[in-house]
């Protein structure tokens, strides 16, 4: 097996996916965005008008759904039952409901199974909320990536404005704070820094500096 496992957890908007994707690119590792899987399922549930309080309906949907992450020029292409939802899963509507869907134990089981299967392949960088503690407990590098709420909201705002999504900075900050709270307070696999994860606070750091820090951790571990 070539390469190691790099696990990155952290709150919403900390830049996990940007950093994880870039680190994977430079190491020629597989990048796995687990948030995209929960987002895709949430998109499908909304599309199908499934009651998000109905845990068994959501669990059945998760078991019966085919989710794929395909490497693309710009990051990953996300397919759910063959349909390309790469852009749709980033919309505020999905962001607002994803934590509710991801809190359902019966949803997490097939998702974690898929994530672990993908990680068998080779060197991987995987980002999410429960990767260090649950999905890849034996990862050689474990990182908790975070930044202040103001900075996370600002970064997300720039991203959204560039895409032409109509949302204010205040609304985004409120959405992010709400999502963090839901992710931290849930019963199954809550968002928390794993004991053996290294804390990386990126407030005030630019992307390249963060990427370099992570690469250093990888080189030390390898
Ligand atoms: O990483 P991202 O912000 O795209 O994740 C969206 C949501 O998916 C999170 O707010 C969380 O509710 C859920 N999630 C999770 N476990 C993961 C990754 C994401 O519960 N490993």
UniProtKB/TrEMBL annotation:
SUPFAM superfamilies, alphabetized: P-loop containing nucleoside triphosphate hydrolases
NCBIfam families found in the cross-reference section: cmk
Coiled coil stretches, renumbered: none
Taxonomic path: Bacteria, Bacillati, Bacillota, Clostridia, Eubacteriales
Compartment list: Cytoplasm
Reactions performed catalytically: dCMP + ATP = dCDP + ADP; CMP + ATP = CDP + ADP
Organism: Heliobacterium chlorum
Binding site for ATP: 10-18
HAMAP family in alphabetical order: Cytidyl_kinase_type1
Protein name stated in the entry: Cytidylate kinase
Record InterPro entries: Cytidylate_kin (IPR003136), Cytidylate_kinase_dom (IPR011994), P-loop_NTPase (IPR027417)
Positions of the Cytidylate kinase domain: 6-219
Record EC number: 2.7.4.25
Keywords: ATP-binding, Cytoplasm, Kinase, Nucleotide-binding, Transferase
One MF term in the entry's GO annotations: kinase activity
